[in-house]
Structure to design on (152 residues):
């Protein structure tokens, strides 16, 4: 196991089923979704996610979730991070940005130097999509937490 895996508290399926613990997703008030589709991945998004998850944990950000996601339609400008519920779009994020970004996320805002002005239609659409994704994650976590039903 890599050292940074102990620091992760994101719900991304990175650990094996035996190692994975599902946090109480209702505790999170701020979310950072990191694109890990092909272009962002090639540009280093896994390193950004790991660094941000470590920084959030080190800073005691119990209300901040770091989650990998598929394409955020920001190809060519990644690694891309979109916050929820604010819908702030951050481009060209680097692992070195993680400590400052974690501190900003805990306060409900993003990292100003990586923030871009996305059109309102994009922000509305992505916030809706990410809100739906959060609900799916919560349902999945609840289903895993249920005791198995006896077969008839």
């Amino acid at each position: 196991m890599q050292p940074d895996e102990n620091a992760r508290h994101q719900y991304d399926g990175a650990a094996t089923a035996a190692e994975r613990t599902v946090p109480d997703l209702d505790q999170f008030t701020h979310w950072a979704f990191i694109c890990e589709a092909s272009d962002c991945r090639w540009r280093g998004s896994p390193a950004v996610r790991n660094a941000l998850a470590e920084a959030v944990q080190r800073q005691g950000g119990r209300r901040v979730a770091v989650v990998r996601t598929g394409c955020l339609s920001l190809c060519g400008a990644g690694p891309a991070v979109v916050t929820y519920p604010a819908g702030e779009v951050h481009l060209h994020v680097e692992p070195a940005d993680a400590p400052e970004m974690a501190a900003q996320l805990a306060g409900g805002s993003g990292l100003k130097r990586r923030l871009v002005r996305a059109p309102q239609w994009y922000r509305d659409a992505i916030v809706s999509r990410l809100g739906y994704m959060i609900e799916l994650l919560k349902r999945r976590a609840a289903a895993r937490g249920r005791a198995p039903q006896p077969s008839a």
